[in-house]
Design brief:
Elements lengths: L3 H31 L1 H27 L7 H10 L1
């Protein structure tokens, strides 16, 4: 169980890593023409970031949202 805030944070991080990794992969492919070792290093790091983004998306899909936020539960208890 995770809060809405945590789920939103995980989701934003996952998509940032995925798209950022793919964008950096393209940059690594362009750099590889001028400096092969540097291009491969950039591409390798980019692939790792994109793979981590995919893994976070898969993990996020399995998480469930809490029934209610802890603050909302406390307000309900106080009002009764």
């Amino acid at each position: 169980m995770a809060s809405r805030r945590a789920l939103a944070w995980i989701e934003a991080l996952a998509w940032t890593l995925l798209y950022g990794g793919l964008f950096t992969l393209a940059i690594g492919a362009m750099v590889r023409r001028a400096d092969a070792p540097l291009g491969w290093t950039i591409a390798g790091c980019a692939l790792a970031a994109a793979a981590l983004g995919v893994a976070l998306i898969a993990w996020r899909s399995r998480l469930r949202e809490d029934a209610a936020e802890p603050n909302e539960m406390m307000k309900e208890k106080e009002s009764t």
